[in-house]
Amino acid sequence: MTLPLPALIAGLGLASLVAFAVRKRLELAGPFTLAALLVALALALAAPVGEPSELLQLELRLDPLGQLTAVVLLGVLAALVAVVWLDEPAYNFFPTALATATAVVATLALSSPIAMYAALFLGLLVPVGSFTFQIHRNRSAEAAYRHYAFVALGGSLGIAALALAGSLPRDQPPVTFVLLVVVIVIAFALKLAAIPFHTHAALLASEVRAPALGLYFGVLVPLTFIAFARILTLSGLLPAIVQIAKVQDLLLALGVTSALGGAFLATGSTELRRVAAYSVIANIGQALVGIATLSGPGIVGAIAIVLVSGAGATQQLLAAGALERRSGTDRPNAATAPLAALAFVAGGFAMIGAPPLVSFPGRFFVEMIAFSYSGALGTALVVATLGVLVAQLRAAIAIFRVAPDHWRVERRPVAGIAGALVFLGLLVGGLQPQRFLAPIAAFADTFIRALRPF
């Protein structure tokens, strides 16, 4: 017997309150949060696809893409919680993770664009608690303020635009709906940290502890991108993009700027966490280009890229945090935590789309369709991929620059084990890509039908 979606969402919300009540007792909060996430993951995997239900008079329906995304993001959250519980205690992280999980499932299950956007908005604001609490340990107050400001600005713009789009009669001039789409695109660019709207993410990468950073780049950024694609599909605004090419040009410009800018910033960075964060921004740029091509392969590749980038970013950020803690005042190196170092390098393969990992098909689809769209566009994405590759190679060389006489596995190789599990999942997905790509392809078909309703 499967648990209905309203019960799953309500259960996760209740679990977050319980975790908050016992958050200072790590021996209870840690295993309770991990168990709740694993149960939610199993229930999401067994949830009936396409079966409608209601919560507070809002329709809930989990499509194949929503189920895939829920399973991936809940799995990433479980990995983050395990590392925090066993290796990097931070009591406020546990209720934050469960509240984020509630927002993840609600965002993916809701059918109303405004309700979906509101759930996403709340989900993005919840981690501010992780950034601000324990300021004496993470020095993140300014990062939290900037994150809150960017999310609040983007959230306000997006809700206003969606509300207007839903209330205006369809006989309005096309330019009206085009302006609404432009506002929505900018609102999501603010939340995705797409360049040039990335300054809050750059500060987060330096100030926030690795698990909280993983919560943002590994869970919330992929969720935001997929919500963006679903909201465009459900809002009825896609035909406006076809009618006037300037909206498509805006998406392409944001995507190319993010892809090249993120790759350039990653290449010039010497901090492991910044390399991971900027690699995600570069990959988000590639995904925006995929969506902007308004083609089936581009949409499939875009969503595949963001899901894999979130998992790879989590792997790298957790490994970077373990290396930094064990290296103390020295530069992070493999001598102090070899398994974590290997996990960081393995995560780099996912970030560049290397075969046989499941990250390869998505990047291949996007770059293939970009070349068919424009030679200059395809070349720009290849250059961005090469930039991320160079950044990952420089980071790997820096980590392994010191060769100790004897390799000693770290006493608590939690980040290394979590990274190995993520890598194994990406490898299995690459060997059987159909299971991963089929739900995304089903959504791409829905997207194309909404784009050309007649």
List the helices and strands and how they pair.
Blueprint: H1 5-21, H2 26-46, E1 53-55, E2 58-60, H3 64-86, H4 93-109, H5 113-125, H6 128-132, H7 135-138, H8 141-167, H9 174-192, H10 199-207, H11 210-235, H12 238-243, H13 245-267, H14 272-292, H15 296-327, H16 338-352, H17 359-373, H18 375-399, H19 414-431, H20 433-451
Antiparallel strand pairs: 1-2
Helix pairs in contact: 1-2, 1-4, 2-3, 2-4, 3-4, 3-11, 3-15, 3-19, 3-20, 4-5, 4-11, 5-8, 5-11, 8-9, 8-10, 9-11, 9-13, 10-14, 11-14, 11-15, 11-20, 13-14, 13-18, 14-15, 14-17, 14-18, 15-16, 15-17, 15-19, 15-20, 16-18, 16-19, 17-18, 19-20
Shape: globular
Q: What is Rg? A: 21 Å
Distance from first to last alpha carbon: 40 Å
Strands of the widest sheet, in order across it, are 1-2
The counted number of beta strands is: 2
Strand content: under 5%
Overall pLDDT: 86
Overall number of domains: 1
Poorly predicted ranges: none
Helix content: over 70%
> Class by helix and strand content?
mainly alpha
Most strands sheet: 2 strands, antiparallel
